Amino acid sequence: MRVYVSRDFPRKGIDMLLDQGIETTVWEQDRPQTREELIRNVKGYDALFCASTDKIDSHFLRESKHLKMISQFAAGYDNIDLKEATRQGIIVANTPDVMRDATADIAFTLMLAVSRKICYMHKKIIRGEWDYFRPKANLGRELSKATIGIVGMGSIGMEMAKRCKAAYEMEILYTGHRQNEFAEKLYNARKVSLEELCQKSDVISVHCPLTDETRGMFDMSWFKKMKPSAIFINTARGTIHREEDLIEALQKGYIWGAGLDVTDPEPMDKDNPLLEMENVAVVPHIGSSTIQARDAMSRLAAENILDFVAGKKIKNLLNPEVLEG
After folding, report:
1. Radius of gyration of the chain from Cα atoms?
2. Would you state the pLDDT for residue 72?
3. Which one of the listed residues 36, 169, 195, 266 is annotated catalytic?
4. Contact 266, 105 (CB under 8 A)
5. I want to staple 149 with a disulfide (CB 3.0 to 4.6 A). Which of 52, 173, 231, 267 is the partner?
């Protein structure tokens, strides 16, 4: 078994592979590979240990049909053409759940940062604009007993609900395909339609996966349904909201503020008007950026490969039909 690793990931997972005698090659340059570079470099390897920013599309997979397995260092896998991988008989696995605390922390932090205009006020100090006291200037909003609408009550949504309930006694609304009885019992959460969630929530926090259904979901029509005092938070995928519509919604006062860990495109242009807005906080996709989360992701990606090598059940298998066939 030979494994190609597309980035210089935390050593925990790499060392696990090496300790089991698996030949492992790591791309160590401080830049991502192009798709064509990755196609060339993965030749002669059995498995690919990759990042969610690697473009594993139909072209890559047709050129890399020798691969037996792809183990992705991420929970999301919208960068992978899963149907084509399945057609080629390539097993695909991911690393879910281990970054739920880290990502929920970022969502909660963004909510606080927007509500008190933290990023904007910090920049005022840097610009030398902290001068005298203005009683009515730069006022934020308090969150105690506010209503939060969680779009996607999965593991990260659950952690966000826990934080909001414990810290601010917030009312929890949620929407999604499945009813979450656990959230309803623990946090008195209530499942509602997306329309009701947008109309009633003081904060809307997005935690759903990127799919054909959710791509571009939050557009102007939905921003107009929100309260003028609403805060929109997205820590899932940037293409779930339409950025031009979000900018306009903020400029015209359809919503009050926004906190983003994800943007469209990424990286965000330094001249994007969102970066200068008073009620906006943007961070560069750091939801899983903790030592604990990244180590756990590396370990889990390696475990997927080791389970495959040992003939064990792969816990995070995304296309089991490959094995069934």
Report:
1. 21
2. 98
3. 266
4. no
5. 173
Residues 78, 169, single domain; the answer is no
Judgement on whether residues 82 and 110 belong to the same structural domain of the protein: no
**Is 266 noted as a catalytic residue in this protein?**
yes
95: left (phi over 0), alpha (psi -120 to 50) or beta: beta
pLDDT of residue 325: 64
CA 33, 34, 35, 36 dihedral sign is negative
Residue 303 among the catalytic residues: no
Q: HSE on the CB side for 31, CA within 13 Å? A: 4
Residue 116 structural domain: 100-282
Of the residues 237, 241, 242, 294, which is catalytic? 237
C-beta atoms surrounding 321 within 10 Å: 9
Q: In what order do the strands lie in the sheet with 47-51?
A: 23-26, 2-5, 47-51, 69-73, 91-93
Q: Do residues 261 and 268 make contact, with C-beta atoms less than 8 angstroms apart?
A: no
pLDDT value at 98 more than 90: yes
Residue 324 has a pLDDT of: 84
Give the pLDDT confidence of 8-22 residue by residue, as tens digits: 999 999 999 999 999
Write down the catalytic residue from 7, 163, 242, 285: 285
Q: Is the same domain home to 59 and 80? A: yes
Question: Which tokens in the block code for residue 58?
Answer: 């139909």
pLDDT tens-digit readout, 197-237 = 999 999 999 999 999 999 999 999 999 999 999 999 999 99
Contacts 24+ apart (CB under 8 A), 275-283: 277/120, 277/250, 278/117, 278/120, 278/138, 279/114, 279/117, 279/120, 279/231, 279/250, 280/114, 280/119, 280/120, 280/250, 281/110, 281/113, 281/114, 281/118, 281/119, 282/119, 283/106, 283/110
Structural domains counted in the chain = 2
- pTM > 0.85: yes
- Helix/strand/coil for 63: helix
237 is catalytic: yes
Does residue 224 share a domain with residue 135? yes
62 lies in the same domain as 31: yes
